[in-house]
Write a structure and sequence with these properties.
With 81 residues, the protein is mainly alpha-helical. It has one domain (3-71). Helices cover 73% and strands 0% of the residues. The termini are far apart. The mean pLDDT is 90.
């Protein structure tokens, strides 16, 4: 993987983290914890080719759906926002 590709992935993940944090009124630590717990970074990098063309609202919605699918039927899901 080239340095430029790594850079693009990193910028995209940070953008998504900040957008999710802002939209859900979370602290940076809370948002990062959710991204870590549900492997959202891997999801974003794996789907970069499609996901990076989405707008902020669609990305936040997609991340929320991703988390919801992983918390369905489990206790202690993500914080309500």
């Amino acid at each position: 993987m080239s340095d430029n590709t790594e850079y693009n992935y990193s910028r995209f993940v940070v953008f998504c983290l900040e957008a999710y944090k802002r939209n859900k009124s979370l602290s940076g630590a809370e948002a990062f914890s959710l991204f870590d717990r549900y492997n959202i970074t891997d999801y974003l990098v794996d789907g970069y080719d499609v996901l990076h063309s989405l707008g902020e609202v669609a990305l936040v919605s997609d991340i929320s759906d991703f988390i919801a699918k992983r918390t369905k039927g489990t206790r202690g899901g993500p914080p309500a926002a």
